[in-house]
Amino acid sequence: MKVWKYGDDINTDMLFPGKYTYTCATAEEVKPHLLEDLDSEFAGEVSAGDILMAGTNFGCGSSREQPVLGLKAVGISAVIAKSFARIFYRAAINQGLVLVEAPDAVDAYKDGDELVLDVEGGSMTVGGKAFTFPALPPEILAIRDAGGLLNYARAKLEAGTK
Amino acid sequence: MGMTFAQKVLARAAGLDSVVPGQIVAVKPDHLLTHDNTAAIIGKIGDELDKYGVVRKDMPIIVLDHVTPAANEKTATGHANIRKFVAAHGLPNFYDVGTGVCHQVVVEKGHALPGKILVGSDSHTCSYGAVNAFSTGIDRTEAAALLLVGETWFRVPPTIRVTLKGEFKPGVSAKDLILTIIGDISAGGATYQAVEFHGNVGALTIEDRLVVANMGIEMGGKIAVFPFDATTEVYLTSIGADRSSYEPVWADADAEYIRELSYNLSEIVPVVALPHKVDNVKPVSEVEGMEINQALLGTCTNGRLSDLRAAAAILDGKTVSPKVRLLVLPASREVLEAALADGTIATLVRAGGVLLPVGCGPCLGAHQGVLAPGERCLSTANRNFKGRMGCKDAEIVLASPETVAVSAISGVITDPRKVA
Fold first, then answer.
1. What mean pLDDT, rounded, does chain B reach?
2. If contacts are CB pairs under 8 Å, which of residues 191-210 in chain B contact chain A?
3. Which candidate, A158, A25, A12, A1, places its Cα nearest to that of A85?
4. Rounded to two decimals, what is the model's pTM?
5. Which residues of chain B have a CB within 8 Å of the CB of A12?
């Protein structure tokens, strides 16, 4: 498991260049361009279970959801950041991508540290030091637990409760 | 304790007497905006649309603007699929290629009204705070779910209050104000938060307010909103929106804010946002002389009649530097018609400007003005991210229409107060 660490204000153009926004929509089309203008090694070397770590305002900029689709598709198990931009945050909930807001843990992480993450328990250890983070509200967990927003909406429609 | 604008709008929409920041509420937005990305959105829910249809036919607003006219077979096919979807479901609020950039069209056509809630699968949906609407961006998956169920959730945001005083000096405009604010509080300074503008908002026209609200997302804001006043009412009446068709909302005098900022408009100076972050803001006077290869006048931020006129007043009788390509991108057909009628377009084209089709143009790097490695574009758009205009080795500098016009003549970044 590798931790890919980046800085503050990682924007959606860095995560997935805008010039591909209207020609790449599926996860398979998105994958080769992930982080293309930020880290040219990422798309080729990332593997399932890896963690992406960043500073403040991760995912700022456009509302495009290809970054979320792509990170989920390559198997990123969680994005741990000091803070997230709100559209990215919603998109991640809606796709079931795990986001963890834990500024102290990001500050503590040094290259090569062992990182153990317990999403359900709201805790992690970074290089042996323990950190906690708040659980998501129940309304939001319901969307994630349904397997993302579309499944949640489908269930509502089938139950006739729209 | 009183409530902020966001608290009052969300409480009303959720059928609650009051809500507090942090609370999660379920609301049915009045409108959902989607654009060229409608093709990808409906692609996620083909079976469900066949089975259940669109939940409320007057809710979606679909504007083709991002890659228009289509640049290739793939984008053309996306547009064709959207037209079929609109026809099959009988959706009334569809605006095809050539109507304009979505954030101008939504306002011009009277869909954004005071007190209404609009969401859109575009980050600059926050623009409609200019006319006292609650509006914010969402992702494509959420847009797909909204087409089917018509309801979503919001976390009630805490609010920053920005109080304005005074009036702009010549050569300074709304773009300089919002870039200054973003530079002060940073690109993430309002993340998860609402931003309300108070004080001498009468000094700002509706077009000025659209510039400011449009860039709310560039400081992370959920919404950026102005009060309803005489300026708003005159504008809405001019586009045929009757006063009885909306119910304005504004914050209580004793609402609680998490941060207070104050700006005297007379102290704002022309500024730019240097590469590659919108909060990398510097006074124009500190970067004068920086060479530019392209100048972009337009987009959903600064493509309105007053923007084009401000640039035309500077370019009248002058010629764009032979080292610079000036691209002119009116925000909508209505803007273009007005700018044709009063001679603004003739002035800009005579000076050397290249008139682009109305829409998003080169702002997102898909076509019509992509940059080459090593080039620099001075732009009135809202984003200067690395790679934004199609090339990661190019630079984008953001500025007002006045700064762009003056600099297009000289070929280097120039302070517009020199000609104001």
1. 97
2. 191-192
3. A12
4. 0.94
5. 385
Residue among B412, B10, B45 at smallest CA distance from B225: B10
Q: Between residues 8 and 27 of chain B, which touch chain A (CB distance below 8 Å)?
A: 24, 26
Contact between residue A57 and residue B220 where contact means Cβ atoms under 8 Å apart: yes
State the Cα–Cα distance between residues B48 and A151, nearest whole angstrom. Answer: 11
Tell me whether residues B370 and A156 touch, CB distance under 8 A: no
pLDDT for res A161: 56
Element (H, E) at B206: helix B206-214
Give the residue-averaged pLDDT of B114-137: 98
Is omega for the bond preceding B69 within 30 degrees of 0, making it cis? yes
pLDDT digits (tens, 9 = 90+) for B319-329: 999 999 999 99
Tell me: the pLDDT tens digits for B76-91?
A: 999 999 999 999 999 9
For residue B303, give Cα distances in angstroms to A53, A62, B52, B157, B201: 38, 19, 39, 30, 21
At residue A92, does pLDDT exceed 60? Answer: yes
Q: Which residues pair with B118 in a beta bridge?
A: B31, B135
Largest pairwise CA distance in chain A: 51
Please provide residue B398's backbone torsions phi and psi, each rounded to the nearest 5 degrees.
-95, 140
Alpha-carbon span B170 to B397, nearest angstrom = 22
pLDDT at B30: 98
Asked whether the predicted pLDDT for residue B218 surpasses 80, the reply is yes
Find the residue in B nearest to A64 (Cα): B139
* More confident: B288 or A135: B288
Q: Please count the CA atoms within 13 angstroms of the CA of B351 that sit on its side-chain side.
A: 32
Position A162 pLDDT exceeds 70:
no
pLDDT tens digits along A47-57: 999 999 999 99
**What is the per-residue pLDDT across B189-206, written as a single tens digit (0 to 9) for each?**
999 999 999 999 999 999
Chain-chain contact of A19 with B36 (C-beta, under 8 angstroms)? no
Q: Which residue, chain included where needed, has tokens 């504004």?
A: B250
The ipTM is 0.87
What is the nearest CA distance from A58 to chain B, expressed in angstroms? 9
For residue A57, the distance in angstroms to the closest alpha carbon of chain B comes to 5
Q: Which residues contact B25 (CB under 8 A, 6 or more apart)?
A: B10, B11, B13, B14, B16, B19, B153, B154, B156
β-pair type (A99-101, A78-81): parallel
- Does any CB of chain B come closer than 8 Å to the CB of residue A82? no
> How many CB atoms are located within 10 Å of the residue B356 CB?
20
**What is the mean pLDDT of the segment spanning A139-148?**
87
To the nearest whole Å, the CA of A128 is away from the closest chain B CA by 30
Tell me the torsion sign for CA atoms B297, B301, B306, B310. negative
In three-state secondary structure terms, A22 is: coil
Residue with tokens 């377009």: B345
Least CA distance to B366: which residue of chain A?
A19
CA of B52 to nearest chain A CA: how many angstroms apart?
8
The CA distance from B193 to B161, in Å, is 11
